[in-house]
Write a structure and sequence with these properties.
Elements (H helix, E strand, L loop, with lengths): L1 E2 L2 E2 L11 H14 L1 H4 L34 H10 L1 H5 L16 H13 L3 H12 L2
Antiparallel strand pairs: 1-2
Helix pairs in contact: 1-5, 3-5
Pfam families: Cytochrome_CBB3
Keywords: Heme, Iron, Metal-binding
Organism: Sinisalibacter aestuarii
Length: 133
Amino acid sequence: MVIAGWHYGSTTSSGVASAEVVSQGRQIYSDRCAACHGTDLEGQPDWRSPLPSGRLPAPPHDASGHTWHHPDDVLFRIVKEGTATIVAGGYESDMPGFGGVLSDAEIRAVLADIKSTWPERESSYQERVSQGN
């Protein structure tokens, strides 16, 4: 499948997303993710402290968060299947899976947008952990 100049064939990306893919991802993020994760990827306040429900608030996706610590395939699965599915062990999360709402290409576009905002240090680290899988 090709969307806006980027070939998608697996759960991980190879190469850099085009500006068009990043732009598409930004729009999808705005429509589907920003309500919880923030317009500027800032996450919810006190995202490391459990809510009264015991669940954690939505983390930031900017360099202050931990998104960049995870390889591409894990990030993809979290968005597609939901955090609780990936973490397992009875973990509860307010992060649903979007696999029934977003196509794989749309999920990858959102991730491309998020990744396009990271400074070099975070980008390089995330690229290395993604290649290790």
